[in-house]
Amino acid sequence: MPASSQPRYAVYFAPPAESELWRLAQRWLGRDCASGAALERPQLDGWSAEALAAATESPRRYGFHATLKAPFRLAPGISARSLHDRLATFAAGRASFRAPPLKVSAIGTFIALTFSEPAPEMRALADAAVQRLDALRAPLTPREIERRLQSRLSPRQEALLGRWGYPYVFDEFRFHMTLTGSLAAAEPRERLQTQLTALFRPLLAEPVPVREVCLYSQTDSSKAFVLVERFPLGPEAAEGKAAEGQTSA
Predict the structure, then answer these.
(1) Across the chain, how many H-helices and E-strands are there?
(2) Which residues share a beta bridge with 215?
(3) How far apart are CA 197 and CA 103, in angstroms?
(4) Which terminus of the chain has a smaller tally of CB atoms within 10 A, N or C?
């Protein structure tokens, strides 16, 4: 089966499902990445619905998230059940925490939510996901490597790509939850950053609860990613989820 026709999985951070941040960000992107339903996007002065749809096309496809383990195909011999079990074990072995408040930032030519100050616990969570889940990942295909190399990676990033399948890990990791695709022109990008800061401002003052890691999947390269399951951090949370599942069975 061609690589493009195989499912891909990703391990992401997403805000709690009941949080206003999760609800607003999903509305902004225009898609509920759990149900797949289209959502009515908040309108901004000076932007047509078509322009905002185009500006959010790429992050809408991936779903609102911050990357912990970048999209990958399963290694030979690894089943979706094995992935689920390994991720549940991984989550149970990590403690929940509160991360710093967010801010709206420009990263190169796109706009994202980033932390307002360093977050070593999030860095440690991402590092652990990269290392401890790597045995589940199939190697990149030559075409995937070639596509990545078109991004003008540094020698260090190329080395990380070759070893871990993604160039932005460990010392190259930068937490972000993407709000737009690439916006090459500076003036509309700066204007949109200001407007998004105003839109998200009520949600930017409080620390971010990090209570789960999330499994997203894509059935093939033509489809959008969907949120498959949330895995609670910590053994107590995992035990509670297991008990809930037994009760409902």
Answers:
(1) 9, 9
(2) 11, 229
(3) 7
(4) C
**64-80 residue pLDDT tens:** 999 999 999 999 999 99
Listed residue (239, 211, 205) closest to 122, CA to CA: 211
Residues 203, 110 contacting (CB under 8 angstroms): no
Are 31 and 57 in contact by the 8 Å Cβ rule? The answer is: no
Contact assessment for residue 39 and residue 26, using Cβ atoms and an 8 Å cutoff: yes
pLDDT, one tens digit per residue, over 142-199 is 999 999 998 889 999 999 999 999 999 999 999 999 999 999 899 999 999 999 999 9
Which residue has tokens 């190169």?
108
- Distance, CA of 208 to CA of 19 (rounded, Å): 10
Separation of alpha carbons 23 and 26, rounded Å = 5
| 55, 180 contact by CB (below 8 A) | yes
